[in-house]
Amino acid sequence: MKLKVCGMKQENNILDVADLQPNYMGFIFYEKSPRNFNDEIPELPDGIQKIGVFVNATLNFVVSKIEQHQLQGVQLHGDESPEFCEQLKAYDVLVIKVFSMKNQFDFKVVEPYQEFCDYFLFDTKGKEPGGNGYTFNWNLLKKYNLKTPYFLSGGLGMENMDDLLLFLKRPESRLCCTLDINSKFESVPGFKDITKVKAFKNMLIKNGYQNHDL
Q1: Dihedral through CA 181, CA 185, CA 9, CA 102, nearest 10?
Q2: Global pTM?
Q3: How many alpha carbons fall within 13 Å on the CB side of residue 57?
Q4: pLDDT digits (tens, 9 = 90+) for 78-97
Q5: C-alpha closest to that of 167 among 145, 190, 141
Q6: Structural domain boundaries of the chain?
Q7: Is the domain covering 2-206 a CATH 1.10.3720.10 domain?
């Protein structure tokens, strides 16, 4: 199980989170987001992959951010097509396509993306494309029968850790490869509470889902 901390914004906070060695750190390139990133990403330790988060951006814009920040992956939160995902594969980055859900979802919409995405990300459908702070009905994932591994996102926090641990023991979690945390760990949008992030990761370690103590 890997860990992604998304919505990073301020340099000192980025470096403090990096000290906790998450597998991925997410940087949002979307002007309407309170977590919009418009600075330079500081040098991160080896082993942490930089993921750019985009919402219906043009190919040129995404590529410019890949090149500017040496991103290792892109996360697509909008209505991007399978063909758009295919185009991004030419830039040697991980392609993560986001699908938002709440109480129902038709996984047929996911099928055309399988060939062109390394991962899917299942998030909660809300007013904003991410960072809404509440979970969706994880039972929906019982109907996920594709082979592409996925990130689980949407309202993950210490307060629902017990439910999360129960979910991770269930068959429908077998392709859940990464937990994506964001708003539940913030004091203000874009600024992560290091104590909370550390506690979350150590709880995963305690239960056998991460492999080194902090």
Answers
A1: 50
A2: 0.94
A3: 23
A4: 999 999 999 999 999 999 99
A5: 141
A6: 2-206
A7: no
